[in-house]
Amino acid sequence: MAMDAVEIERLIRDGIPGADVRIEDLRGDGDHYAAYVTAAAFKGKSRVAQHQMVYAALGGRMGNELHALALTTAATQD
Amino acid sequence: MDKTVEERIRRDITENDVVLYMKGTPVFPQCGFSAAVVQVLSHLGVKFKGIDILVDPALRQGIKEFTNWPTIPQLYVKGEFVGGCDIIRDMYESGELVQLLAEKGVAAQAAA
């Protein structure tokens, strides 16, 4: 099972309104991606909390259909 | 989650300053992400307890529920979940990891 970049991006955008999302396919096998997510909703949140928000947006796919997602998150600067 | 698994997790992260739930063992990591965190900890000379979740499916599921974190590896310092591979690598590169360890009173040599 694998996922494609467009679906990952859509899920994160739907789950974190206003997020700026960029997906990079690391190996072209549909299983190893990098995601760069910037969102105002991350402001004041720890890195762990920010990543948990992205995982929640992916609705349980992380660690299942999606084997590896190198995640970089940041709060939107004012 | 199974009560005994939760108790075991609590005991492990309380009795050991630094605990790494990983795939494989520190000497034979079975996954690149686990190996990367082992490398960071070894590079900093941090003593840690490696726990192989591959040999314990109940623990493998339980640890994910315990932290609401879907992947392995997972690093704990003084009973607190610090992060997975991405976060540990970011913190290592920014120097935050050495700072956190110092704050928690865990011996570490700042990378040369």
From TrEMBL, chain A:
Pfam families: BolA (PF01722)
Domain of life, per lineage: Bacteria
UniProt cross-references to InterPro entries, sorted A to Z: BolA (IPR002634), BolA-like_sf (IPR036065), BolA/IbaG_stress_morph_reg (IPR050961)
Signal sequence segment: none
Family (UniProt): Belongs to the BolA/IbaG family.
Classification via PANTHER family: BOLA TRANSCRIPTION REGULATOR, BOLA-LIKE PROTEIN 1
Protein name, UniProt field: Stress-induced morphogen
Organism: Nitrospirillum iridis
Lineage: Bacteria, Pseudomonadati, Pseudomonadota, Alphaproteobacteria, Rhodospirillales
TrEMBL record, chain B:
Origin: domain of life: Bacteria
CDD domains (UniProt xref): GRX_PICOT_like (cd03028)
UniProt GO MF annotations: 2 iron, 2 sulfur cluster binding; disulfide oxidoreductase activity; metal ion binding
UniProt KW keywords: 2Fe-2S, Iron, Iron-sulfur, Metal-binding, Redox-active center
Pfam families referenced in this protein's UniProt entry, alphabetically: Glutaredoxin
PROSITE patterns: GLUTAREDOXIN_2 (PS51354)
Domain Glutaredoxin: 18-82
Binding residues for [2Fe-2S] cluster: C31
InterPro entries noted in UniProt: Glutaredoxin (IPR002109), GRX_PICOT-like (IPR033658), Monothiol_GRX (IPR014434), Monothiol_GRX-rel (IPR004480), Thioredoxin-like_sf (IPR036249)
Cited NCBIfam families: Grx4 family monothiol glutaredoxin
The family this protein is said to belong to: Belongs to the glutaredoxin family. Monothiol subfamily.
Protein name per the record: Glutaredoxin
